[in-house]
Specification:
Layout (H helix, E strand, L loop, with lengths): L1 H17 L28 E12 L5 E11 L4 E2 L4 E19 L4 E16 L4 E10 L5 E5 L6 E2 L5 H11 L2
Antiparallel strand pairs: 1-2, 2-4, 3-4, 4-5, 5-6, 6-7, 6-8
């Protein structure tokens, strides 16, 4: 009886697959100089999960709240240059609301956010990085604030997001 059910299930799956169109075989086009070819990313989402990170913040009563945020990278933004650097965009979804302050000549503005995007540039030989740009995301994935920190190369820290992301950017691993 069990064998009959198993055979019936196999037949159903086989019949369901009969009408499925196969993706056409295509020659892999050569990439632009400085780009990384990841095979077919056609059916992949832009942002791919890479790690969880512990996020903490203080509420208005001064109580510390913690949770797990998520880190994603965008495989379509990976570029490599002839000078041995590689660029990649990373998106951090914080578990707790974060605060970002920025100033102009007359005012200080405070923005609460849960998503930020970071444009990293890695020196693949020295295993150092800079943050080229940071975007604080507002409602509807719009950029609420933008920051371009000083361009100082720093070493990656063991277990950090930059240490996890660097091999992806530099070698596609």
């Amino acid at each position: 009886m069990l064998l009959h059910k198993l055979a019936a299930l196999i037949c159903l799956f086989t019949l369901a697959a009969c009408g499925q169109a196969q993706a056409p075989e295509q020659a892999q086009p050569p990439g632009e100089p400085g780009s990384v070819l990841l095979g077919s990313t056609q059916n992949l989402p832009d942002w791919l999960f890479v790690a969880r990170q512990r996020d903490c913040s203080e509420n208005n009563a001064g109580e510390r709240q913690c949770g797990l945020g998520e880190v994603h990278f965008n495989q379509r933004t990976i570029t490599r240059a002839a000078d041995g650097t590689a660029d990649i965009w990373v998106q951090v979804r914080h578990a707790q609301p974060q605060v970002f302050q920025f100033e102009d000549a007359t005012t200080t503005t405070t923005v609460r956010y849960e998503v930020q995007r970071l444009h990293y540039r890695f020196n693949c030989q020295t295993e150092q990085f800079i943050v080229v740009e940071r975007q604080i995301m507002g409602p509807g994935e719009t950029v609420a604030a933008r920051d371009e920190p000083r361009q100082i190369y720093r070493a990656t820290v063991p277990g950090s997001i930059t240490q996890i992301i660097m091999p992806i950017a530099c070698r596609g691993e």
